[in-house]
Predict the structure.
Amino acid sequence: MKLSRLVEQIKEKQTFLCVGLDSDVDRLPEGLSRDLDGLVEFNRAIIEATRDSCVAYKINTAFYERYGSSGWKALEKTRAILPNTHFLIADAKRGDIGNTSSYYATCFFEHLDFDALTVAPYMGRDSIEPFLGYADKHAILLGITSNPGSADFQKTRAEDGEMMFEKVLQKAIHWGSPENLMFVCGATQGAHLSRARKIAPAHFFLVPGVGYQGGDLRTVCKHALNNNIGLLVNSSRGIIYASSAKDFQRASAEKAREVSLEMKKIIQNTLI
Amino acid sequence: MKLSRLVEQIKEKQTFLCVGLDSDVDRLPEGLSRDLDGLVEFNRAIIEATRDSCVAYKINTAFYERYGSSGWKALEKTRAILPNTHFLIADAKRGDIGNTSSYYATCFFEHLDFDALTVAPYMGRDSIEPFLGYADKHAILLGITSNPGSADFQKTRAEDGEMMFEKVLQKAIHWGSPENLMFVCGATQGAHLSRARKIAPAHFFLVPGVGYQGGDLRTVCKHALNNNIGLLVNSSRGIIYASSAKDFQRASAEKAREVSLEMKKIIQNTLI
């Protein structure tokens, strides 16, 4: 999907919500079989319930890969029911030397036809470039993540006083453009988000960590909105596990609408 | 596999060779069908040809994942024919927030029963710990890699003058022990390998980059051997593509024996 189409959708729908399908066989609600068939049925129900309230879906590949090839089959089935109207992200955090990364790109951009893939930066430019060579596809590079471990290396100060995540953004914006490169910036990172936005004013940020991990939507927006909104804020557990009872679909729909409405208010206040 | 068993094998066999199954459907030799069945047959032939000359096998998951679930099926079939006498490495470079990493660990350590998995460090401690909680399993953390992109972030100097890869090793040795944690240190990194060895004297290093990528076995050994040898030196393309003709199995066996003999000489000189 072209970036311009994503921006249009955000403006049309007045939401920048990404629903995360971290769907876990062990946590399926009442009424569904606790196996991979049940998982795909669950995803179908969640997609139906949330599609009008979001512009993107994010699949966490580990939740499928856990079961090996049969989990990958469920991932493929889920991809087949994801609506191509939406911006579709594989959250797989891949990255390897050039010729190997190019096969991960084949998998996620060709075989599975996702719009975007999360990518780890540690191995540098040649590990990332294979993901930047596809028209209308997007590498989403880890910048500053939402987890406690983000303090270990991402915040290590370089000799000029800047932190590693700043170095990653500074270098990477010369490798890709806002058309093919986004960054993961965690909702829990407060003022670091402002710094990321200053370095990459036009790039979209995928923002995990709102809700369960303690991040706050308004704080994120205060630090990182840009003229195109520039954010895809992800919610996984808060929406998909809104209820574990038979009414889970209605509960997820309501929760997604609620988050989306808050986003609408933010967009309207921002554009005034 | 326990570390002590790996060390015993290295001493018994007088080799520290790891054969990398970066097996590529597009490069299968004459006489094999160019599909996933051919790929598994190729792996079977390479394993037969090399098992006496190596102590470890490394599977590059991207070469299988490229085909989605059917590629993963070929990966599972290949795992089933890998000999459990050998140290078995999944080179997948995974890593995510804690609960997600734990599912990658489930996949590679339980479902596929590999002995070790390569792991990316950028997300810090909680992204790595799930791989350290298994008896006789090993996380192999990226330290300093063999590719050109290693210069981008791994060699960024921190405010105390040390490079990022040194920071990664320094922190990680407190998270795991030589019993459950190894490091990837690329053969092309010359004197940086000495520095890595100084920081982590007792940890094993998985060393890619000998051969095709330009690294040299003797240079690696000069910088990074320890009392237990402490190295698994990987060769992929140099061995598995030793010939593209019908005699590929014989050619691969010869090449593996040759590399292994060079290792034997190094071990014998070292122990004198």
